[in-house]
Amino acid sequence: MDPIQDTKCCFVNPTSNVQTWAKKLKPNLCPTRMSLPYGLFQPMNF
User: Fold this and answer.
1) Contact residues for 32 (Cβ-Cβ < 8 A; gap 6+)
2) In contact, 12 and 40? CB cutoff 8 Å
3) In the prediction, which pLDDT does 16 show?
4) Worst-scoring range by mean pLDDT, 10-14, 19-23, 34-38?
5) What is the pLDDT of residue 7?
6) Vertex 20: Cα angle to 32 and 3 (nearest 5)
7) Bridge-partner residues for 41, per DSSP?
8) Can you tell me the distance from the alpha carbon of 24 to that of 42, in angstroms, rounded to the nearest whole number?
9) Residue 33 — pLDDT band, cuts 50, 70, 90?
10) In angstroms, rounded to a whole number, what is the distance separating the alpha carbons of residues 44 and 46?
11) Which DSSP string do the residues of 18-44 spell out, in sequence order?
12) Model pTM?
């Protein structure tokens, strides 16, 4: 359960447009996987 690096994570939500949401989210403000229940976050290169 190590925190994912801020520069390589995005919110993963199957009920919303993940790509659009991730583009609006600044990499340095991206929370870690520990911030929400396991499975909501996954690595992603911006």
Assistant:
1) 3, 4, 6, 9, 41
2) yes
3) 53
4) 34-38
5) 38
6) 10
7) 11
8) 17
9) very low
10) 6
11) HHHHHHHS-GGGPPPGGGSSTTSEEE-
12) 0.16
| Token pair 């499975």: residue | 39
Mean pLDDT over each residue of the chain, to the nearest integer: 48
Burial class (CB in 10 A: 0-12, 13-18, 19+), 13: exposed
Distance of CA 25 to the CA centre of its chain: 9
Neighbours of 2 (CB within 10 A): 7
Share of residues in the chain with pLDDT > 90 (%): 0
CB 7, CB 27: distance < 8 Å: yes
Other C-beta atoms within 10 Å of 21: how many? Answer: 13
Residue 38 has phi, psi (to 5 degrees) of -55, 135
